[in-house]
Amino acid sequence: MNAEIREDIKFAVVGAGNGGCAMAAHLALMGFKVNLYNRSEYRLKDIKKTGGIHLEGAVSGFGRLDKITTDIEEAIRDVDIIMITTPATGHRNIAKMAAPFLQEDQIIVLNPGRTGGALEFKNIIKQTGVRKEVIISEAQTFIYACRIVGPARVKIFSIKDRVDVAAIPAYKTRKVVEKLSCAYPQFHAAESVLETSLNNIGAIFHPAPTLLNSARIETTEGDFQYYIDGISPAVASVIEKIDRERIKVANALKVKAVSALEWLKFTYGSEGNSLYEAIQNTKAYKGLKAPDTVHVRYIFEDVPESLVPIASFGRIAGVPTPVIDSVIEMASAMHNINYWEKGRTAEKLGLKGLSVDQIHQLVLEGEVVIPQRGIAEGEAQGAEGDVVA
Amino acid sequence: MNAEIREDIKFAVVGAGNGGCAMAAHLALMGFKVNLYNRSEYRLKDIKKTGGIHLEGAVSGFGRLDKITTDIEEAIRDVDIIMITTPATGHRNIAKMAAPFLQEDQIIVLNPGRTGGALEFKNIIKQTGVRKEVIISEAQTFIYACRIVGPARVKIFSIKDRVDVAAIPAYKTRKVVEKLSCAYPQFHAAESVLETSLNNIGAIFHPAPTLLNSARIETTEGDFQYYIDGISPAVASVIEKIDRERIKVANALKVKAVSALEWLKFTYGSEGNSLYEAIQNTKAYKGLKAPDTVHVRYIFEDVPESLVPIASFGRIAGVPTPVIDSVIEMASAMHNINYWEKGRTAEKLGLKGLSVDQIHQLVLEGEVVIPQRGIAEGEAQGAEGDVVA
Fold first, then answer.
1. Using an 8 Å Cβ cutoff, are A109 and A137 in contact?
2. Looking at the domain covering A202-342, what would its CATH class be?
3. pLDDT tens, chain B, 389 aa long
4. CB contact B294 to A (< 8 Å)
5. Residue in A211, A238, A329 closest to B323 by CB
6. Residue A99 to residue A127: CA distance in whole angstroms
7. What values do phi and psi take at A47, rounded to 5?
8. Residue ranges, CATH 3.40.50.720, chain A
9. Which chain A residues are Cβ-neighbours of B333 within 8 angstroms?
10. Among all residues of A, which ones are annotated catalytic?
């Protein structure tokens, strides 16, 4: 990495939660100019007082920030890269707010996109009528494991070695990886946003085990090991089916998906013939407690922004997802929220009426050529048509 | 009650589990002739040795049995009343086995029928081609709370004050109640088997809380209070939706259904503004432990024989049951069993293609007049037609 390049690249970090604070401070420590945005003032109060954020753990030092603001226009003005670190439930609103102020060539990275994040973001920008040439991309996971531990103070437990990222259209991913590399050499190009979106492992490990341990979470305030005690053989049997449905959907969309079992093996080196065994053999899960409430991102984020879009991709590809659907329905009943309506449906992702091939065209090239109507039945559909996305 | 009548009435009790043993012994103690049947020999071994069953608890004494047998023909020959006390999952098979040996005017009582028990039983008898005039009826719940406590020894904890029963056709219910009254004055006539079937409260309290506590059941072997700890606000929120779906289905079938909240109030005097509160205020639930495995009747009986038929009635009546469906789907994933296929669907209940009015006709009169085909569209359908059930 190179100090001259650093001075040239400006970041905005959108969202001042655990992750956003860690990222903003770390980028500042690396020497970049960083603006930090948060919707509400209260998360910024202490940071404004000190002018930045103290880091401890895997990285330590004080990251002095440039602008600390609740004004999205001020936050993103003249920056090169906009790192969005809010829960995926915030992506829609940020897209709407930011759209009028986006500038040519800005790069937007959703950290992470969950499932369909970049597609949805792009669709909202399009609906607002903004025609700026920005690059929208999504990471497959969040690069830091970290937590706010005091006023303007964050602990970074670990930084991942590798994070996949994809832009839409996919041929722009190279540019995103290149631009990010000065700060994060860990980012690697995925084939497309379908790959980052359909390898969303949180969709498997978060909602169903939380539901199937809901009473225990509520009566013990999460005082049990989330994975080791919470994923018993019966629960593992359910999440195995969910994982299988996800992989079938991915395959139908011609996307390589890694199974949860494979993921545990290559991420943690966990051995096991079944998902249950592999989880029990994952040392990183020992002692890891459950959330203390069922009103938690594991449901309110992962159901609408991970499972609903996977099920919606399934609908498009003609792959039934009955177990995923049952989790969505039961979470809706538990939270008194219609997650089907709230979540990322094909319509919200801008995929309504598209075929699998057209979706590929969209994620690879950024637009779809819709054959013109009125062609006689049986006649081969030509390449002429309207560009819609 | 009258000793002369008693000598006239002979019972068969089919199923030598906790309930069947209590019922057989109690009936014998009351002075009736009782045969006890079980499919497998091992449950009968100790009872054959002693010639009967010892009762303790609410009733005590030794009930000497007439025949103790694994031969269904021997068990039901020349009896007046056949009390079936197996899990509902056994009803199909018993109907098939017993059909060839049924005699005119015998009364069959499913204790209880769960949902659709009598309809299914009748449908199977019909399919076997047996044309004997028997009365098939179902109780809404089981009259005893009891447990086998030793070899040929049962403890009766309590006997219910009132149990609703209905025959199919409903005009024969009076005869069932009259015949049973010499032994059980507690049996009362329900309007029809739709009423007994759709007021199946086990459908509400058994499958969903078991699923939503599955990991806790497996890791603690049920060492927590099933209702008090297992039905937290989040779980109560789910079962409230399930109950609401059941009531909507019942209403669409013109059946009065009691809500779970009302049921807790009149059964246990439990007060509460919500199902959660009423359950927490139910003294009978204090200390009641969970099952020690998820491979339990609460799922393997109540899903196929309670929730699947309620959902199937919903399909007929045009009432969606998304939360019930999600429980069926998730239980199927957990047990690796397709409960939709295994359970009591409209087809198995003999209701396929029937309208709500025709179902009423079937349960009230025992047969349905199907208007003849080929009537010109728009023409009023007459009463002429084929009798099909």
1. yes
2. mainly alpha
3. 433 446 689 999 999 999 999 999 999 999 999 999 999 999 999 999 999 999 999 999 999 999 999 999 999 999 999 999 999 999 999 999 999 999 999 999 999 999 999 999 999 999 999 889 999 999 999 999 999 999 999 999 999 999 999 999 999 999 999 999 999 999 999 999 999 999 999 999 999 999 999 999 999 999 999 999 999 999 999 999 999 999 999 999 999 899 999 999 988 999 999 999 999 999 999 999 999 999 999 999 999 999 999 999 999 999 999 999 999 999 999 999 999 999 999 999 999 999 999 999 999 998 887 765 544 444 444 444 444 44
4. yes
5. A329
6. 10
7. -70, -40
8. 6-198
9. 237-238, 241-242, 323, 326
10. 206, 302
Q: What are phi and psi of B166, to 5 degrees?
A: -145, 145
How many beta-carbon pairs below 8 A join chains A and B? 103
Please answer whether residues B55 and B49 qualify as being in contact, where contact means their C-beta atoms are separated by less than 8 angstroms. Answer: no
CB contact under 8 A, A330 and B323: yes
A235 touches chain B (CB under 8 A): yes
Contact B323 A333 (CB under 8 A): yes
Q: Are B212 and A212 inside 8 Å of each other by CB?
A: yes
CATH of B6-198, one of 1.10.3720.10, 3.40.50.720, 3.90.1150.10, 3.10.180.10: 3.40.50.720
Smallest Cα distance from B298 to chain A, Å: 14
Closest CA to A138 of A79, A189, A73, A207: A189
pTM: 0.90
As for the ipTM of the complex, it is 0.88
CA angle (B373, B377, B383) in 5-degree steps: 50
